[in-house]
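FAQ
Q: What does a multi-component entry look like?
A: The components come first, one per line:
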Amino acid sequence: MSENHTSNSEESFYKSKKGLASWIFTLDHKRIALLYLYSIAIFFLVGMTLGFIMRLELFAPGGQLMNPRTYNQMFTFHGVIMIFLVIIPSIPAVFGNFMLPIMLGTDDVALPKLNLFSWWLYVIGAVMALSTLVWGNGPADTGWTFYAPYSVTSDTDVSMLLLAAFVLGFSSILTGLNFIVTIHRLRAPGMGWFKMPLFAWGLYATAWIQLLATPIVGITLLMVVVERSFGIGLFNPALGGDPILYQHLFWIYSHPVVYVMILPAMGIISEIIPTSAQRTIFGYKAIALSSMAIAFLGYFVWGHHMFTTGMSGEAAIVFSFVTFLVAIPTAIKVFNWIATLYKGSIHITPNLLWSVAFVFNFLIGGLTGLINGALATDVHIHDTTYIVAHFHYTMFGGTIFVFFGALHYWFPKIWGRMYNTKLAYWALGLVFFGFNVMYGAMLVVGIQGMPRRYFDYLPEFEHLNKISTVGSWFLVFGILLMIFNLVRSARKGKKAPRNPWNGVTLEWQVPSPPPLHNFDHAPILSEKGPYDFSILGEINKYETTKIDK
Amino acid sequence: MTTENSNNMSEDVHQPSYKLDFMTFGFLLILTALTIWASYATGGTTVLAVSIAMTIATIKASLVVINFMHLRFDNIVYKIFVGVVIVLFLSFMLMMAVDYAYR
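Then the predicted structure of the entire assembly, as tokens:
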């Protein structure tokens, strides 16, 4: 029995079982992670295509490719796909599912069946959202925020999209719940709270937001469905409802959820940077606790989305003040990452450059956020393309850049192969250049006064809109090049060793790709914490044995 | 090790009491009757009726969580988690109330 287990456990998880059913009904956290990855990749491409077409529409004033109503539906669908189907699940569901149990030294998440159920809910929610393309009066045209009273009165298929978001919210809650239980219950013996990798801390803080904030938006969206279906006056002033109440309830979730998007990304940066600098991370506890501080403070800032709604001035001052407080733990992280790189033995890799690109973009995203958070300036830039650019600097330049960086960092571990580094650098360069041209131009044209979500614009905005659209061409080409490189390398790349980047966290101690039960030997933990590079030699002993075979 | 031992001990000590369960159940029924009575007694005054109903509902939910869901027997960590959730909820209500009061 024991011998059988040993021989099976050395075989890659890809080979443990075969056939479609072995994937879609799997309980293995690694396969579920890949199911999420492939689903999310498809929806990312759909969302990217919609965004690309919108940029083409905005290349010149006046109608180019579509009418205004279609444009409204496109930006709504782009937002819903990118927020609910891509960014929210992206890092937790893919890299959290794949890496968290391994990084904690265990063989799976605490609740594997719930994990699979969570993916199925994701698929059901996605199908419900996509069904609005072919059924009813067409997809919603309200914007992804579904603001009342328009979402109550719009004749498009808003209800189905709201129900889809509700189901997707459940998927997110179950993933968060699973991670909390896993982190509490399944850490390797000897791995105390402050010996966990920082990615686990990021996921832990995120999971609490998923668990506590998502139900609020779930109920809120259902309230809109009830109002649409039965005419009960909850948010529509014509029926005695309060539209500002909708915005309160919506943003109580939807502001914390930006931390669901960014905290795991920050956790990954805290993994890539010490490995790339070959030294322990600077300020481990400060980074770990700052994740919790961001998660906590993030609950109290939702009102900064509502400064121009007619909310009371007193409440606006409180929200503005608390918004500025969030900058402190965020700055602590950025300071510690830079301090870790300072005088480190830096190995330049695509992973590191994606991370540095993230820090650059996120600084712009964060600093432009302070302008939004200040009452006096927000009034002028509210509902302009400046807001759209700020949001994309944090979510795309932030989370998605890290998602791409994590794909490169853990690619050898997940697929057991190396990718073409030269192509990876080219792709990164194109994406970084295209991204900054596209959204940099949107920042400027927003300050000049161009409103967001407008199908047409005044002639004076044409020059910057053209620049922005040209940027989108570089961006899309870079992304396609990256996907081509990774897909080809997953099949034809050189075989990867266990530890190609000389990392010391536990995922680098298992074979590439890992076997079904992850570990083929007892995980080696350092007394000094997860980033102790003095144990690298001991870790790599196993790698040498494996390669010689 | 210490945590494991204390967990085992609390599990040993943790004996469900039917008396407590039935007392809780009875109290829940009384509170339900009180809610119905209050809705008539307030004579249709919406704010007062809703306030009383919400207060009673909160007490009932607390009884369920503490006794039926065994929070009283649980580790201190879970009690802290529940406390944090209550603080968050009250904060949401308070911050929205500030907006409504001064709008």
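Q: Is there any commentary attached?
A: Sometimes. For this entry: The two ends of chain A are 24 Å apart (CA to CA).
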